[in-house]
């Protein structure tokens, strides 16, 4: 198994109770969240527990998150406890139009990574480094993630990057800086994941042609593998001849399931994909089929939407393999 380092935020998801609008909802329940945190826990449940570089606030929510990550058997060596309150991501009730998430808090404690504090020991032992894009909305987070991606590449690590662009977290006047950082990390990455909305919002594609063209547009920016997620419609994948799994262009339509809560489904997909692809890179024959890896990722996402919550709904490896066995 490859040694994986995941970097990015851990925060609180506030999930609404029953009701279509805020007027109907009596209250919210708190759950652990943050895309990189979900990916780290997802990898652990899939049998590939990573080192996780994250920041945890000094408030009771920070205590709760640390306890949660420890309970998932993630090593604590790269956790940082910092002064400040944890960012809250409030999930909108299903009947509310517009943004699905609204973020509350200054973001300094959660996203303000110190570029000089990345664990050198963790990076030295890693063969795969995964970064989340939300930290790029903070000036310190941008610098830290850009430096981490560049350093990981220089050390010969495989670098994967989830764009995960959040316009509402971008401070006034800083959109260009955030998009520039996204493009820089895409160029320094080997595997890039983005939703079709991410691609459109950041201008990573010209927007011309069909969805299958989005993956090829991402490849032109530097990575050898690009995955464009399409929600319940599955995912498009493209890779160049430089990829360990060879040159491919394909689409996997996902799996039809009865969804309870889609929060964190994209993170579950990412965990499944990184788990399968990193397994292949740790083998001498690099015998991973890219389309099979995307099917595994889609199965991981499908199982995650059957339960409420993001991190709490992530499946085990046995669950994913059983699900795939049934669908075959």
UniProtKB/TrEMBL annotation:
SUPFAM superfamilies: Ribokinase-like (SSF53613)
Membrane-spanning ranges: none
Domain Carbohydrate kinase PfkB span(s) in chain numbering: 1-316
Keyword flag Hydrolase: no
InterPro entries registered for this protein in UniProt: PfkB_Carbo_kinase, PfkB_dom, Ribokinase-like
E.C. number(s) listed in UniProt: 2.7.1.-
Entry keywords, A to Z: ATP-binding, Kinase, Nucleotide-binding, Transferase
Single GO MF descriptor: ATP binding
Protein family according to the UniProt entry: Belongs to the carbohydrate kinase PfkB family.
Protein name: Carbohydrate kinase family protein
Organism: Halorubrum yunnanense
């Amino acid at each position: 198994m490859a040694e994986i380092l995941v970097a990015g935020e851990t925060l609180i998801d506030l999930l609404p109770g029953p009701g279509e609008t805020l007027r109907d909802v009596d209250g919210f329940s708190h759950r652990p969240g943050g895309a990189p945190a979900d990916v780290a826990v997802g990898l652990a449940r899939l049998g590939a527990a990573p080192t996780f570089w994250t920041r945890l606030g000094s408030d009771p929510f920070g205590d709760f998150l640390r306890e949660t990550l420890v309970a998932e058997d993630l090593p604590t060596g790269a956790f940082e406890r910092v002064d400040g309150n944890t960012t809250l991501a409030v999930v909108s009730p299903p009947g509310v139009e517009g943004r699905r998430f609204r973020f509350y808090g200054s973001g300094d404690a959660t996203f303000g990574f110190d570029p000089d504090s990345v664990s050198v020991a963790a990076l030295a032992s890693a063969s795969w480094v995964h970064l989340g894009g939300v930290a790029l909305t903070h000036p310190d987070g941008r610098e830290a993630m850009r430096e981490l991606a560049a350093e990981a590449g220089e050390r010969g690590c495989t670098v994967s990057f989830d764009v995960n662009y959040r316009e509402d977290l971008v401070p006034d006047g800083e959109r260009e800086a955030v998009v520039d950082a996204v493009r820089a990390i895409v160029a320094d990455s080997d595997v890039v994941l983005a939703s079709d909305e991410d691609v459109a919002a950041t201008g990573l594609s010209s927007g011309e042609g069909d969805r299958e063209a989005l993956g090829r547009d991402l490849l032109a920016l530097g990575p050898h593998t690009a995955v464009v997620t399409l929600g319940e419609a599955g995912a498009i994948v493209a890779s160049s001849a430089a990829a360990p799994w060879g040159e491919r262009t394909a689409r996997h339509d996902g799996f039809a399931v009865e969804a309870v809560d889609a929060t964190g489904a994209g993170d579950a997909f990412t965990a499944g994909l990184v788990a399968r692809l990193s397994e292949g890179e740790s083998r001498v024959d690099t015998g991973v089929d890219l389309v099979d890896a995307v099917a595994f990722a889609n199965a991981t996402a499908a199982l995650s939407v059957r339960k409420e919550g993001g991190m709490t709904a992530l499946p085990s490896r046995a669950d994913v393999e059983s699900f795939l066995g049934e669908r075959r």
